[in-house]
Amino acid sequence: MGSLLLAVIYLAFISLGLPDSLLGSGWPAMQSSLNVPSSYAGYISMTISLMTVISSLFSPHLIKKMAVKWIVIISITLTVCGLLGFSSVNQYWQLLVWAIPYGLGAGSIDAALNYYVASNYSPRVMNFLHCFYGVGAVISPNIMAFALLKANWHSGYLWTAILQGFILFVCIISLPLWKVNEKANVDSETSESVGIMSSLKVPGVIFTLFAFFSYCAGEATSFLWTSSYFAGTKSNINSELIASFGSLIFGGLMLERLIVSFISHRLSDRKLIRIGLITEAIGILLVLIPSSQYYLAVIGFLIIGTGMGPIYPAIQHMAPANFGKKFAAAVIGLQMASAYIGSTFMPMIFGFIQQKTGIWIMPYYLAFFALLNFIFLELAYRRIAVYKNK
Asked: Kindly report the CA angle at 212 between 40 and 45, in degrees rounded to 5?
């Protein structure tokens, strides 16, 4: 039963990844269809992420009051509604309306499953979990690319909604698997958990929030603008190929998390993060090499995603060890909220920047946030070490 439950959790994380990469891969076609400026993708991304921040902040309360299985079911249902809504719009403002359930469905399930796995499983399981997020995020840009080839971007959202609905169905019929395990493993630990304000006072927490903000600023910008980067800087690429490039970052994420799941028992979370940041820097340098062809940039973005791969799950997995299980649920909820604040505003801000300067500036933008991520994590490590040595 334990193995089947893990399979369901992995499937739920595929559902979390599916909606995240659709906007970036479909936006060049959506922009043309809706006749709006390219920067308007940022408003949609901001709305989705803002809703995710709200649901993330409520996640510690939900984890206390509601079984994880119901958080999963409700969250996936909301994303199905959002995807179906996106598939039916014919005006830009309607996307902003449907972005509300689209975003609300992501935050609580992300925080709840991360807390559940971080508290009860090894780093290997955590990396497998986030690897399956990458699976979902790789699948959907290719669905969009196929839809653009055979139909239109509306169909890309519709077909993804159907796949998401199937995952929801599997999660519903698997509800009995959660009954014993969730009650035994989660309820006893969350009963003594503390609130958000108390968690903010724990040494090192603030720095990890800034680190998460910086990481997700770069990650979300890559998710949203990678396809547009190729459209704006490379020549002789058709729209279907451009859409498929939206999966490069996600493919790198998935590849790295799969590799890390087999070697994480040999390396600490901190070492994995440092290796990831170095790898990300190498990818950014490759993208910066001037070329009218797209091959080097393809490799570069794939390597950027590979470098990003271990950072998110490693920070989440460290939370119980760094801050104690008493604070872990609230800290992870705060981390998720901070992450989604970065996802909310930074891609939108980049949209304005690239509209003024050109999309060529994207790798410099990614390098800036990678550096911030490194600085804040190192500060967090030192603060935690000082506190624990007292």
From this structure: 15
Q: What is the pLDDT of residues 300-318, one digit of tens each?
A: 999 999 999 888 888 887 8
Amino acid at 126: M
Residue pair 343/319 in contact by the 8 Å Cβ criterion: no
Give dist(CA 365, CA 388) in Å, integer.
35
Q: Give the whole-angstrom CA distance, residue 139 versus residue 251.
A: 9
Domain count within the chain: 1
* Helix ranges, 174-204 (H): 178-182, 188-190, 196-200
Specify the pLDDT at position 390. 61
* Residue reference for tokens 């939108």: 348
Query: Both ends of the chain: CA-CA distance in Å?
Result: 43
Per-residue pLDDT at 189 exceeds 80:
no
Query: 248-263 vs 295-308: helix axis angle to the nearest 10?
Result: 40
What is the span of the domain harbouring residue 168?
Answer: 2-388
- The structure tokens listed for 386 are 């000082």
Instruction: Provide mean pLDDT across the span 190-207.
Output: 72
Exposure of 4 by Cβ count < 10 A (0-12 exposed, 13-18 middle, 19+ buried)? exposed
Distance of CA 311 to the CA centre of its chain: 11
What is the average pLDDT across 54-65? 78
The phi and psi torsions of 8 (rounded to 5 degrees) equal -65, -40
Burial of residue 21 (CB within 10 Å: 0-12, 13-18, 19+) is: buried
**284, 304 Cβ separation under 8 angstroms:** yes
Write the CATH number for 143. 1.20.1250.20
